[in-house]
Design a protein that fits this description.
Blueprint lengths: L2 H28 L7 H9 L9 E3 L4 E5 L2 H7 L3 E5 L4 H9 L5 E3 L5 H15 L1
Parallel strand pairs: 1-4
Antiparallel strand pairs: 1-2, 2-3
Length: about 130
């Protein structure tokens, strides 16, 4: 291949990769509940609209994430949620009353790990 055709092929590849990335991102974004908050979370738990083994409490960031079942997906317009919330004893009490045992994660996002993950694509390109 000559140099201009190599350049054109590279640009075509980059455009195709960009379009694929946007489509994947839009599909994931459509699954996320937009205006979900703690009071809606408590209502969803009380109405049994949450998948029982999907609740994860992130202690380092005080966030709760989980997945809604089909009934919750119809009510709130999405499947996944992640909210800043009280991750203390009161939330644990609310969840255990409904038979839900949350999974606790202590996220360790060190500077070196985040830098490696952020710069990894650039290193792979070079």
């Amino acid at each position: 291949m000559k140099s201009p055709s190599k350049t054109l092929a590279l640009w075509a590849l980059l455009i195709v990769m960009g379009v694929l990335f946007v489509q994947v991102y839009q599909k994931q974004a459509s699954n996320v509940v937009r205006d979900f908050n703690y009071s809606k979370f408590v209502s969803a738990v009380n109405d049994e609209q949450v998948v029982t083994d999907s609740i994860v409490i992130h202690q380092a960031t005080n966030e709760i994430e989980g997945i809604l079942n089909e009934a919750g997906e119809k009510v709130y317009g999405g499947k996944k949620f992640r909210i800043p919330a009280n991750t203390g004893d009161k939330t644990f009490e609310i969840l255990t009353k409904k038979g839900i045992t949350p999974n606790y994660q202590n996220d360790d996002s060190s500077f070196i790990t985040s830098m490696f993950l952020n710069w990894l694509p650039l290193l792979l390109i070079i």
